[in-house]
Amino acid sequence: MSEREIKWKYPQSIVSCEWLRKNLSDKNIRIYDCTTYLHYTDTHPSKPYDVESGIKNYRKGHIPNSAFMDIQEKLSNNDSDFKFTIPDYEILANNFQDLGIGDPYHIILYSGNGIQWATRVWWLIFILGFSKVSILDGGIKEWKRLGFELEKGENTYKKARFVPRIDKTVFVDKEQTYTSLNKKGCILLNALTSDLHRGENSRYGRPGRIPGSKNIPFEELVEDSQKLISPQKAQAIFKNKNINQKIRVLNYCGGGIAATLNAFVLRQLGIEKIEIYDNSMSEWAMDHQLPIEKDYILK
C-alpha cells in the first residue's frame, strides 16, 4: 500500500462533527462529554496535579443531547494512591451501564481540552467488550469552530444493557511493565512531552523515563484543532521509531491518560499488540526500587 492510500483501519471508531450534527436526532446515538482538567502543582510529587471535573463548563454549553461523564468519580478507583486507576472491571461495567452505555446505542465521546480524555474512556469501554463506541474528531473545539449550536444545562441517559466481555490484556501494571524492559519484540512508548521524557522536569517524583523507552508526545498526534493528524502523518511518526505491526507496544505517560491516545492511533494503523500501563509514571517514579533513565541532570 502506498503512502497516499493509507487509511484508518477502524474508521467507524472516529466520527466527524459534520456527521454527528446530521445525526443528532437519532435516538440510538448517545453522546458524552468527558472533559477533565489537570491543574499541575509543585507541592509534592505524590500529588503532581489536582483534578477538576469539566461539569461546570459542560453546563454552560455542550453539544446538544450530550450527557456528562465524570472520569474521576465514576470511572476511577478512588481508593487508589493514584488518580485514574481503573476500578474492578465488573464495577466499571456496572457504572457504564448506569450512565447509559450499552446496547443498542452508538456511543460518541468527546472532550473540551484534549482528545486524550475521550480516548481514555474509549479504551475503558472497548476492553469491556462493547465496540459500538466512537471518538468525535476535534471534540467541542471543532464543533464550535464550525459554528454548530450548543445547549446549556444538563442531560442524563437512562440505564442501558451492558454485558461485559472483559479483555484483561490491554491495561497492565508495574510488574508487567518491568518484565517488558529490554524484551525483544516489545517497545515501551512514552506519550509524555519531550522535557519530561528527557528528565528535565520532576513532576512525578524522580525525573526521567522507564529505561529504554521511546518518546512520541501525544500532542504530535493531533492538530491545533484537536483533530487527529492524517493516517499518513501518523504512520510516518511511528515508523520513525521502528514501530510496525510485528511489534508489541507498551504505552505509558503520567497517569494512563495521554498513553490511550497513542494506543488509539496505533490501533487505527493496524498495530494490534497494544498495552497501556495504567498508573504510568505517577507510580513508577515514586517506587525507588524501579529503574529510571534520563538525559538531563537537574541542578
First and last CA, distance: 49 Å
Number of domains: 2
Radius of gyration using CA atoms only: 19 Å
What is the overall silhouette? Answer: globular
Number of helices: 11
Secondary structure class reads alpha/beta
**What is the CATH topology assignment of the largest domain?**
Oxidized Rhodanese, domain 1
Tell me how many strands there are.
12
Summarize model confidence as the mean pLDDT: 93
Strands of the largest sheet, in order across it? Answer: 1-7-6-2-5
In this structure, how is the largest beta sheet organized? 5 strands, parallel
Order of helices and strands: EHEEEHEHHEHEHEHEHEHEHEH
Q: What's the CATH architecture name of the largest domain? A: 3-Layer(aba) Sandwich
Describe this structure in words.
The structure is a single chain. The protein has helices spanning 17-22, 55-60, 71-74, 89-99, 116-126, 139-145, 174-179, 194-198, 231-239, 258-268, 280-284; strands at 14-15, 29-33, 36-44, 47-53, 67-68, 106-110, 133-136, 171-172, 186-190, 214-215, 248-252, 274-277. The protein is an alpha/beta fold and 299 residues long. It is built from eleven helices and twelve strands. It folds into two domains: 9-145, Oxidized Rhodanese, domain 1 (3-Layer(aba) Sandwich), CATH 3.40.250; 171-284, Oxidized Rhodanese, domain 1 (3-Layer(aba) Sandwich), CATH 3.40.250.10. The mean pLDDT is 93. Helix 5 (116-126) packs across helix 10. The protein starts with 13 loop residues before the first strand and ends in a 15-residue tail after the last helix. Strand 9 (186-190), helix 8 and strand 10 form a beta-alpha-beta unit. 40% of the residues are buried. A five-stranded parallel sheet has the order 1-7-6-2-5. It has a five-stranded parallel sheet with strand order 8-12-11-9-10.
